[in-house]
């Protein structure tokens, strides 16, 4: 039987995770949900933002659903030694799970085009997925150094590292509209040439997917001028970090954005936003990003695509009927959640 480790965390984390749990219990009542502490809450309870009890619970779990971690700017947590701060708990969690593929769907939902900062005709119908390599490249390559007047980092990738994240992107494209855009800078970078060769060879195994290669600088422009041209985008860690934050402006509210991080066995699912200390405890946070993350969990880790589709459709219906405060409406967390459950 499927087992999901639930990590509510800090700030609005417990509020938005509470909402997602109601939805999961409704559509997948047989799944075991097991709560454990992480972040500042775990530091308070166990003196460690990623305590051994939480780590042990993840062994053999099918997925983890995370809220958010971190305190307000004036929180005492910010003065702790770095390894004890809430944010290190999250980084250790991602590393522990070996989640090398970060998936960020970016959707402008029908009826919510007006929230996008882009003109409605550009924003309408945007539905793309960014697949970002998460554990390699410049952020992790040990070949780095800093002298007084010079410094360097290295973007190193092996064929195997490219293939394993590429596989996630091809599979996703196959299940979506069948168009994969691999993003690189192959006109300048050696590593991008290997990236391009590897992905091109891999495409043979996915005859239903059309593979395009585009340069990262050009993609940056097109993402905010013609976003409708994209289905799945595949890219390395640094490019993906920048492009996924850029793409996050398209829907118009951080509260709507889900993410999935996949790797060895246990997938990690979390909203893109932080702990929102300014509204924590008021019951007004938008739980959509977390509920949509739970939908990704159903689809990618539990193989329940039709339940995931149902949840996504219910969230769209609920948001259109009773928008939350970040969307210019008045619905509370509980009211939006109730609307999602009704729509299910
Ligand atoms: P934030 O995402 O928490 O908040 C930015 C703004 O968006 C705030 O005005 C907040 O009220 C609003 N907001 C965010 N999520 C919302 C939601 N679901 N519904 C309605 N409004 C929402 O980013 P900020 O303020 O920079 O960081 C606050 C704390 O969160 C910090 O301690 C930071 O380290 C942590 N953080 C944690 C992340 C994680 O757990 N993955 C990611 C980003 C930040
Ligand atoms: Mg970023």
From TrEMBL:
Subcellular location: Cytoplasm
GO biological process: L-leucine biosynthetic process
PROSITE patterns cross-referenced by the UniProt entry: IDH_IMDH
Record domain Isopropylmalate dehydrogenase-like: where: 3-340
Binding residues for substrate: 94, 104, 132, 217
Residues bound to Mg(2+): 217, 241, 245
Positions annotated to bind NAD(+): 274-286
Family the entry assigns: Belongs to the isocitrate and isopropylmalate dehydrogenases family. LeuB type 1 subfamily.
Protein's job: Catalyzes the oxidation of 3-carboxy-2-hydroxy-4-methylpentanoate (3-isopropylmalate) to 3-carboxy-4-methyl-2-oxopentanoate. The product decarboxylates to 4-methyl-2 oxopentanoate.
PANTHER family cross-referenced by the UniProt entry: 3-ISOPROPYLMALATE DEHYDROGENASE (PTHR42979)
Subunit structure: Homodimer.
Protein name: 3-isopropylmalate dehydrogenase
């Amino acid at each position: 039987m499927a087992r999901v480790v639930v990590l509510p965390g800090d700030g609005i984390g417990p509020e938005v995770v509470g909402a997602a749990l109601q939805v999961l219990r409704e559509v997948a009542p047989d799944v075991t949900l097991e709560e454990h502490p992480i972040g500042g809450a775990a530091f308070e309870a166990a003196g460690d933002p990623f305590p051994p009890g939480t780590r042990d619970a993840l062994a053999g779990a099918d997925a983890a659903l995370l809220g958010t971690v971190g305190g307000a700017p004036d929180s005492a947590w910010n003065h702790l030694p770095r390894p004890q701060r809430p944010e290190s708990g999250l980084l250790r969690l991602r590393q522990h799970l070996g989640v090398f593929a970060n998936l960020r769907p970016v959707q402008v939902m029908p009826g919510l085009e007006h929230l996008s900062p882009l003109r409605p005709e550009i924003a309408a119908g945007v539905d793309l997925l960014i697949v970002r390599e998460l554990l390699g490249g410049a952020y992790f390559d040990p070949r780095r150094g800093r002298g007084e007047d010079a410094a360097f980092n290295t973007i190193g990738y092996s064929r195997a590292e490219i293939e394993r994240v590429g596989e996630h992107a091809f599979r996703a494209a196959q299940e979506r509209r069948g168009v994969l855009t691999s993003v690189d800078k192959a006109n300048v970078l050696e590593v991008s040439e290997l990236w391009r060769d590897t992905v091109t060879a891999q495409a043979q195994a996915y005859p239903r997917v059309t593979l395009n290669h585009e340069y990262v600088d050009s993609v940056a422009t097109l993402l905010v001028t013609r976003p409708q041209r994209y289905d799945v985008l595949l890219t390395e860690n640094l490019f993906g970090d920048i492009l996924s934050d850029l793409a996050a402006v398209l829907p118009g509210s951080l509260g709507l954005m889900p993410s999935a991080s996949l790797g060895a066995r246990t997938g990690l699912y979390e909203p893109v936003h932080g702990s929102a200390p300014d509204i924590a405890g008021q019951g007004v946070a938008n739980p959509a990003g977390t509920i949509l993350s739970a939908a990704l969990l159903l689809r990618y880790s539990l193989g329940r695509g039709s339940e995931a589709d149902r949840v996504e459709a219910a969230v769209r219906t609920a948001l259109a009927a009773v928008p939350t405060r970040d969307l210019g409406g008045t619905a509370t967390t509980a009211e939006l959640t109730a609307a999602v459950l009704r729509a299910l």
